[in-house]
Specification:
- There is one protein chain.
- Helices cover 49% and strands 13% of the residues.
- With 158 residues, it is α+β, with helices and mostly antiparallel strands.
- It is globular.
C-alpha cells in the first residue's frame, strides 16, 4: 500500500485487524460484492455527474449516465441502484441543491474536473483520494457526493 485513501483511513480508525486483512496482508480476502446501500451512492453519483458534465464539458461517452451506471454498479445490484439513484437525483434537483451547485460552478474561474486523483502527504503519511468534482471559486472547491441513510430504518435514533 503506497497511499491511504479516506476509506482505508476510516477502516484503520475503526478496526486495525480488518485494516491489516484488507490492505496489508499478503493473503487479502476478495472484495465483498456491492450491496444495495453501497450501490445507491454509485447510482446517484452517475446521475448527478452525468448532468453536471453535460452542462460544463464537451460530450464524453464516459460521463453518459448509462456508462457510469455500468462502470460503478455491479450487475447484480445495477437495476436497483439505477432506480434508487434516480430517486435520490430527482430529490436533489427538486430541493434546489443542484441548481445552487451550478451557480457556484458558474462563478468559477476554471472548468470543473470530474473523477480525478488527489495526492498529498500530511505529517509524513501519503494520502490519496478520488473526489467527484473540483472547481475554483477563489479557493479550490472539492466535492465528493455521499448518500447516507437511504437504506436506513426510518425513525431510528442512536
Amino acid at each position: 500500500m503506497k497511499r491511504l485513501s479516506p476509506t482505508a483511513l476510516h477502516c484503520w480508525e475503526k478496526d486495525r485487524e480488518v485494516f491489516y486483512c484488507r490492505y496489508l496482508s499478503p493473503n487479502r480476502p476478495p472484495r465483498p460484492p456491492q450491496t444495495n446501500p453501497m450501490s445507491v451512492g454509485s447510482g446517484f453519483d452517475a446521475y448527478v455527474k452525468a448532468a453536471a458534465h453535460t452542462i460544463y464539458c464537451e460530450f464524453n461517452m464516459e460521463y453518459e449516465v448509462g456508462t457510469l451506471l455500468r462502470e460503478q454498479c455491479e450487475e447484480h445490484v445495477r437495476e436497483w441502484a439505477t432506480k434508487a439513484g434516480e430517486w435520490c437525483w430527482d430529490r436533489y434537483q427538486a430541493s434546489g441543491v443542484f441548481e445552487d451547485l451550478c451557480k457556484e460552478i458558474d462563478k468559477s474561474g476554471t472548468k470543473p474536473r470530474f473523477e480525478f486523483s488527489l495526492k498529498e502527504e500530511i505529517g509524513g503519511v501519503p494520502l490519496q483520494g478520488k473526489p467527484d468534482l473540483e472547481f475554483n471559486v477563489g479557493v479550490p472547491f472539492i466535492h465528493d457526493w455521499k448518500v447516507n441513510g437511504y437504506c436506513g430504518t426510518p425513525g431510528a435514533t442512536c
